[in-house]
Amino acid sequence: MSDIFNNELFEAFAAASDNVYIYVCDMRTNISRWSRALVEYFNLSGEYIENAGAVWEEHIHPEDRALYNEDINGVFSGAKSRHECQYRAMNRDGEYVWLECKGSVIKDKDGTPIIFAGLMTRLDGQNKYDSLTGLPTAHELYHYNISEKKGIAVLMGLDGFRKVVSSYGYNAGDEVLVLFSRILKDSCGRGWSLFRFSGDEFIALAPAAGKEAVEEFFSGICEKADALELADGQKISISVSGGALLFPEDADSREKLIKRLENCLEYAKMHHRGSLVFFSEEIVKQHRRSLALREDLKQCIADGFRGFEVFFQPFVDPDTHRITGCECLLRWKGEQIRDSCPMEFIKVLEEYGGIREVGFWVMEEAIRHQVEWREKFGDLRVSFNVSYQQFMDEEFEERINQCLEKYGCDPSNIIIELTESCQVDKPQELASMFDRLRERGFKVALDDFGTAYASLEMLKALHVDYIKVEHSFVRELSEPGHDIDYVIIDNLLAMCRRLGYDSIVEGVENHEVADIVGKMDATLLQGYFFSRPVSRNEFEKLLEEDREK
Description:
Layout: H1 8-14, E1 20-26, E2 31-34, H2 36-41, E3 48-50, H3 52-57, H4 65-76, E4 82-90, E5 96-107, E6 113-122, H5 138-141, E7 151-159, H6 161-168, H7 170-187, E8 193-198, E9 201-207, H8 211-225, E10 228-229, E11 235-236, E12 239-247, H9 254-271, E13 276-278, H10 281-302, E14 308-316, E15 323-332, H11 342-352, H12 355-377, E16 381-386, H13 388-391, H14 396-407, E17 414-418, H15 427-440, E18 443-449, H16 453-461, E19 466-469, H17 483-499, E20 502-505, H18 511-518, E21 524-525, H19 536-547
Parallel strand pairs: 12-13, 15-16, 16-17, 17-18, 18-19, 19-20, 20-21
Antiparallel strand pairs: 1-2, 1-6, 2-3, 4-5, 5-6, 7-9, 7-12, 8-9, 10-11, 14-15
């Protein structure tokens, strides 16, 4: 019998609680071991079970089997690495009890799934009320009979709550949750039910309420959350996103209600952050597309980054309009989904963690191309984008230094662009990273500069080489009524010169804008006037044409 079954740790955890059960499955043999307490409470045939998924399904409530199978099949098919869902299972007395089941897959060094292990928690053994906010817990939501009542359900989540905790600490985070729960209690109408769903998410059930009343409720809590004050006097502004649906019209069961509310909230955070979004078939369609995108991206990454391609957009000298370098931009066409734009698929990569390996792939492609072009076209400055999360990856420095050694690249020709600078919550750690990269010889740039006050904050903490001026200030610069844009850009570039930074102005889309910005003493220009992002072959043609000028 496998060592994963017979060890002291399994015995210790199995005996730790009467309400929490453990299980472990050898995915190579499909044999599982279940804790003795679980076996006894659910009257199973024994601790060791072959094809346990099918055996266990017989104990699951018929209404919950589809939910369970969808989740567990995703694990065993390799589509997902974690199992997490709530459902009812019949115990030895013939009664259905609610369970929360969580499990994870362990892979060997070759990436082959070998072990699936997890916990089952009986929800009837948990507290009915959340100890922090005093609200009923998500478990109590299962006692609310959706099919026999009529109303509107709202799932609310705090935007950027993680950043609050990172910036002010866990105690402040708890205080924000308590303050927000009080706002919800004070704002709910008569007969409403309120629950703390999970983390920073809350559910309100409003029987017999109309959309107008719910929208007014949501608007009120957003206004109050925008001006929270902690006990120490610290003021914090929090935005709230929400998803809503009508019951039983849009959801006639608790499981469907929760799943669709989560889809609505996800859609709101992605497309209408800080707003309330009501359920629609479009949201279902978008959710299915997002899941399909995720799986397509995973398969392409596993298959040697199949479908991914780097495009290049030139940097040009403002005086001569000669090409001096380029920015590397990621493109992708999947096997199933072929029309996904970077804004969409990169967000999906970031959500599930695939951006890490894709980011390293783009980094190596940028360095490789710079070296391959060096002999034929001279030293071109090649840039690529790196998110804050990628900079904070413990392997980032090691991987980029390995690329330098592998290809023999001069780091002074590589520009590393920080994206999403306003999302930085540990500027000192980032500053140390920048200093080490610059000491190594790399150039560092702040991308999309000017889009938020945080950009100016970053200048106080970070030492950089380039500032990239955001294209929204530039595109319509030649049109009447854009004098303010002119003043902003002129002053940004003057600030760069005084601070000793080079500048890259994005969004140059016509000759008039190129002339205007060119007279402002920018270091480099970039935009559709010179070229859209193009494939490697097309970019090399541009370089050839540039040499012939």
